[in-house]
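Support request, please re-run this one:
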Amino acid sequence: LPVPTLALNYVNTNTSPPAELYQFGLAVEDEVIEMVKRARLESYEQALILTPDSRWGNRVALSLFDGWSQAEGQVIAMNSFTGENDYSNTIQSALNVLESKQRAKRIQRLAKQPIEFTPRRRQDIDVIFLAANPEQARQIKPTLAFHFGGDIPVLATSSVFSGAAKPEKDQDLDDIVFPDIPWSFEQTNIKQKIEQISNVPPAFHRLAALGIDAFRLIPRIKQLELIADTKLYGKTGNLKLLPNRIIQRELIWGKFSRGTATQIPTLTSNDVPANI
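Re-run finished. Output below.
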């Protein structure tokens, strides 16, 4: 390439990209890094991964598995859902509730009389990594509670947040925590103007933040390359350039409470007690 070129996507190849190619986008892998980091700071160790049965879902599942394993966490189970009325079966299988029910049936057959029984979920999961869109997540979270998994913390990708306040619909998402870009929680003049003139769903407004940061990155790309650990505090996160000329984003955190997504503090190692 004759000049520095900023690609708003990523090269999916094992070969080295051209020397002047810089890659920047809203990669879900950046979210996975933040999810794994927060889960470890929360002292979680054993994870269940729930993702859609799709190309994107498989990509997220693999990234979560690799990231969690590298962080010395244990993946207890990986389950996928199609969204075609299979949430209950998927979650029962993941939590071993079906196995619990089958065990009760065997005992009842052996006893040859009715028995009182309450199914139990497996007890070796202390965090759930979830990748889902808002419609899927609104069904998954209550289904987890119905099958005795409502007390397990859920860390999700930003895809669970539509980008707009919908408290009536999103009450079922309460307590889900997710990484997202600063733009999602900002109320600035430029954001209001873009939302007024843009006739697209709120979820696509994240692309406006990508455009703003791309514009600001171009004159600073060489500075980021020459000075180690330099960051650009952008609308899509705190941006830094990796040695392979990929822009990595450090994100902020949101949490659903009473159906509304609000920003919460980002955990650091200083927030963790010394004996952990």
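The chain has a mean pLDDT of 89. Residues 26 and 207 are 8 Å apart (CA to CA).
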